[in-house]
Specification:
Layout: E1 2-3, H1 8-24, H2 33-56, E2 62-63, H3 64-95, E3 106-119, E4 123-135, E5 138-139, E6 145-151, H4 167-175, E7 189-198, H5 211-218, E8 223-226, E9 236-240, H6 245-260, H7 264-275, H8 283-292, H9 302-321, H10 327-333, H11 336-354, H12 359-376, H13 383-397, H14 405-420, H15 436-466, E10 468-470, H16 473-494, H17 500-520, E11 526-528, H18 534-548, H19 553-556, H20 559-568, E12 580-583, E13 592-595, E14 600-603, E15 608-610, E16 613-614, H21 615-627, E17 633-636, H22 641-644, H23 647-653, E18 658-661, H24 668-671, E19 675-678, E20 684-687, E21 690-696, H25 699-704, E22 714-718, E23 723-726, H26 732-741, E24 748-750, H27 762-768, E25 772-775, H28 788-796, E26 800-803, H29 804-807, E27 810-813, E28 821-822, H30 823-826
Parallel strand pairs: 6-8, 14-17, 17-18, 18-19, 23-24, 24-25, 25-26
Antiparallel strand pairs: 1-2, 3-4, 3-7, 4-5, 4-6, 7-8, 7-9, 10-11, 12-13, 12-27, 13-14, 15-16, 20-21, 21-22, 22-23, 27-28
Helix pairs in contact: 1-3, 1-13, 2-3, 6-7, 7-16, 8-17, 9-11, 11-12, 12-13, 13-14, 14-15, 15-16, 15-18, 16-17, 18-20, 21-23
Length: 839
């Protein structure tokens, strides 16, 4: 048997390239860059040898076995080259990172504002491309790109930039109370400023967002803030850099949209459609878009760029044909359809650049470029090979996209549409005589069919990636896709030249958003399921594909049972008599989940990071959804914002929660309709053979004490095998009283007050005698938690201390008390920061 198909070799190379990048992304630690270079050089020699052998035997048809062997060699070589180039790029990038000895030090840096500054209630955030850096007037190694926050109240007014550099002027400037970032901070400006930096350190929680990977993809190697205290030299604008006209045009467009459209909610969506500024969309609007399944439409996406390329290409081709200046000679030299194809690609590139050149926009441009180049070369590959080629090109530019949900949604959607598309039909002579309305009706039917395919076939993947899917997605998208893609987006783009078009786009968008808001209010609008393993996603995708194929009904019905694992999957729970404790990684704050066989309780709700963000919305609600948890009780130890900051988001997502707290009855959290109970010593309840008891405060302490820390609710959990103690921000005086009146022995303990010097007294540690102690504190937090002398007390008693900044989310089970599972250490990746444990 002989194989004459030329597609086997390219297919093997493309598949190997994708798999090689995927393999490299599993590395926990990077090799030296020279090792990757050596691997790449050796594989290049192997590739040259294979190509030479194939060239020598070109006239002979290869037997099947030989052809498969050659394809396998090509796949392995391509995988190795992809592995090597991805690893070499990663090693080179990692070598530019901020040296650990410069973390927390005041550095003087000269740099250029890169991209659009993002305004917020508390701070102005921007990226700075550093040109020089000094520590105590000594040049130091610096990362190329950093992300900074210029906090309100710590800023410096540009009005003083031209003031004489006298001591009195400096003192006057430093003592100003209304210090804010300059309102006119422009892209491309060069600034000399004092900053304090640290390595990018994200939170690691089950099924949580990988913030460190996002910064890695953007090339950001340090984060920090602008220092503008009385001891610091004020920031100084130096000069505007060249070649920043694109970002300046984007900023001017954003400001013009805000001036034209009074409603900030509508203005944010218009800005996102025109220039990719997703941060302009309000969080409440994102919740509505996700509930109705139209979030992919409300920012620049592959759909918008592809449509823009298609429309631009059509207009260019039409103008090319009708050009009076060039006439038919131009069309003969370059056919109109070719000019339209390349023109559409260039317009898509321009749109993507103006939108900020975000990763989704880049992926779309590379995919379109692959399609255009294949057409231009006359290659007629089958769709799987074209699809694989586009994926390989995207991965070549950005291999880390393999860990992004948007990458898989984009490529799986395109593959599903290719696979379920109708086979080409013979030309119908009556089609040209079909009326305009019938053509529009046929196009509408095709659009609805494609939307049905996307909604049904992608639902399993969406459930696996986000643990929720909109049940109204088909209806909402049927209304939103034509309106947004054919009316709102073109009008929004037209507004760059004709600003009144923005008003019309906003009016149409307002109608749509009101309709979407109404639909999202339905209690059944969103289906939520626990995160299923990867094999469930594969089975579900195959089931969805079977159900939308143009095959007999008997075959398509087989897809339904394949989708059931995603819909019915339930994570394992502790057996009766046992419980599990999950200490979330929420930064500087506290949030702990306690689970039994059929009950769950949240102890504290994490911090509020800013006026726009909190741990409830960012960490706890997504994690609970992914775990399939609907907790019954919420214990709020006390009223500090690092313990109750996420409570409002939790109560909104889980209205069934019963609140047990030491908060005052008139606290704002308790004014909303919630079932609230004051925590008092002696309260007990039992679930699934596990007992729960409140140990502090008692009635006398609740009436006498006023300091929130002193009123912390202390919870003791006792299972058959082991016990746990959750302490809030209890301080030494209350620890002594607690030890005197209650039994506090426990195997697992939440370190009181994040390891502050005011807590963790020797008396408490001797009474509890824990095997494990967990510190929930942020990396390099400004309080210095945990304190060194406190940690020394734990070490002296041989208590194993786990810090959330080092461990990530920490999971402990009472039926396996000797083990602690640290998410950051169990699933390590080389782009994730590895902080040293604080002494």
């Amino acid at each position: 048997m002989h194989l004459h198909s030329p597609a086997l070799g390219p297919t093997a190379c493309l598949l190997g390239w994708v798999l090689g990048a995927a393999l490299q992304l599993q590395q926990a630690r990077l090799w030296p860059i020279g090792a990757y270079a050596l691997v790449g050089a050796g594989l290049m020699l192997v590739l040259l040898w294979v190509l030479r052998r194939r060239h020598a035997g070109r006239e002979l048809a290869l037997p099947m076995a030989a052809a498969m062997t050659a394809a396998g060699i090509l796949a392995v070589v391509a995988a190795g080259l992809s592995f090597a180039q991805t690893g070499a790029r990663a090693a080179w990038f990692a070598a530019q990172a901020l040296p650990s000895e410069l973390e927390g030090r005041d550095l003087r840096v000269l740099g250029r504002i890169d991209g659009l500054p993002r305004g917020g209630v508390d701070a102005l955030r921007f990226e700075l491309r550093i040109e020089q850096a000094w520590l105590d007037d000594r040049p130091v190694h610096w990362p190329a790109r950093i992300e900074l926050a210029w906090y309100s109240g710590r800023g410096w007014s540009r009005a003083g930039a031209g003031a004489p550099a006298t001591p009195d002027a400096d003192v006057q400037r430093a003592r100003q109370q209304a210090l804010h970032p300059p309102a006119s901070l422009q892209p491309g400006e060069r600034w000399l400023m004092t900053v304090r930096l640290k390595a990018p350190h994200g939170q690691r929680n089950p099924h949580g967002f990988d913030h460190e990977l996002r910064l890695w993809e953007r090339g950001v190697q340090a984060v920090g803030y602008v220092r503008t205290t009385a001891r610091d030299r004020p920031p100084e604008p130096i000069a505007a850099a060249e070649f920043a006209w694109v970002d300046r045009a984007r900023l001017a467009t954003r400001q013009a949209i805000a001036q034209r459209i009074a409603d900030p909610s509508l203005a944010g969506v218009i800005a996102a459609l025109v220039m990719g500024d997703q941060s302009a969309i309000e969080r409440a609007d994102w919740d509505v878009f996700r509930a109705t399944g139209v979030a992919h439409l409300m920012s620049i996406s592959g759909l918008h760029i592809t449509l823009f390329a298609w429309l631009s290409g059509g207009l260019i081709a039409a103008a090319w044909r009708r050009s009076a200046r060039w006439g038919s000679a131009a069309c003969l030299a370059l056919p109109a359809h070719v000019a339209g194809r390349w023109g559409g690609l260039l317009m898509a590139l321009a749109y993507a650049v103006f939108s900020g050149w975000a990763v989704p926009a880049q992926r779309t441009v590379w995919m379109l470029a692959v399609a255009v180049l294949l057409r231009a070369s006359g290659v007629r590959w089958p769709w799987p090979q074209v699809w694989l080629a586009a994926m390989a090109v995207v991965i070549g530019f950005d291999p880390w996209a393999l860990h992004q949900a948007g990458f898989w949604l984009s490529f799986v959607a395109v593959g599903l549409l290719f696979a379920s598309d109708e086979p080409p039909r013979r030309s119908d002579p009556t089609a040209s005589r079909m009326g305009v309305w019938r053509q529009w009706l046929a196009a509408l039917v095709r659009l609805l069919r494609e939307q049905w395919i996307m909604t049904l076939a992608l639902s399993p993947l969406v459930l696996v990636l986000f643990q929720q899917v909109s049940l109204l997605g088909l209806l909402a998208n049927a209304l939103a896709i034509p309106l947004v893609t054919l009316a709102v987006t073109p009008l929004a783009l037209m507004g760059v030249l004709l600003p009144p078009a923005w008003s019309l786009a906003a009016a149409l968008l307002d109608v749509l958003m009101q309709l979407l808001g109404f639909l999202s209010q339905a209690s059944w609008a969103v289906l939520e399921r626990a995160a299923a393993p990867w094999w469930c996603a594969v089975a579900g995708l195959l089931g969805g594909l079977l159900m939308v194929m143009r095959w007999p009904l008997a075959l398509r019905s087989l897809g339904l049972p394949l989708m059931l694992p995603v819909l019915l999957w339930q994570p394992a729970r502790p057996p009766p008599g046992a419980f599990e404790v999950l200490a979330f990684d929420v930064g500087q704050g506290s949030a702990v989940l306690v689970r039994t066989a059929g009950y769950s309780l949240l102890y504290d709700a994490g911090p509020r990071y800013s006026r726009e963000s909190d741990a409830g919305h960012r960490v706890l609600v997504p994690a609970l959804r992914a775990m399939g948890e609907r907790p019954q009780d919420l214990v709020l130890s006390h009223g500090d914002s690092d313990h109750i900051g996420g409570a409002r988001a939790l109560l909104a997502a889980h209205p069934q929660l019963q609140v047990i707290s030491s908060l005052a009855p008139d606290h704002e959290l308790l004014r909303q309709p919630v079932q609230a109970t004051a925590c008092r010593a002696g309260q007990r309840w039992q679930r699934d053979g596990v007992s729960f008891e409140i140990l502090h405060p008692n009635d006398e302490e609740a009436a006498r004490l006023r300091k929130p820390n002193a009123l912390s609710c202390v919870l003791h959990v006792q299972g058959v095998h082991a016990s746990a103690l959750l302490t809030g921000d209890l301080e030494a005086a209350q620890e002594a009283a607690l030890v005197e009146r209650a039994s506090v022995r426990a195997d697992w303990m939440l370190v009181p007050h994040h390891g502050s010097r005011t807590s963790s007294s020797a008396a408490l540690l001797d009474a509890v005698q824990p095997r494990w102690a967990v510190v929930q504190a942020a990396y390099r937090n400004r309080f210095g938690h945990p304190a060194g002398d406190v940690m020394a007390r734990y070490q002296a008693r041989r208590i194993e201390v786990v810090q959330s900044s080092v461990c990530g989310a920490a999971t402990w089970r009472s039926d396996e008390p000797q083990a602690m599972d640290c998410l950051r250490q169990r699933v390590p990746r080389y782009w994730q920061h590895r902080p040293p444990a604080q002494p």
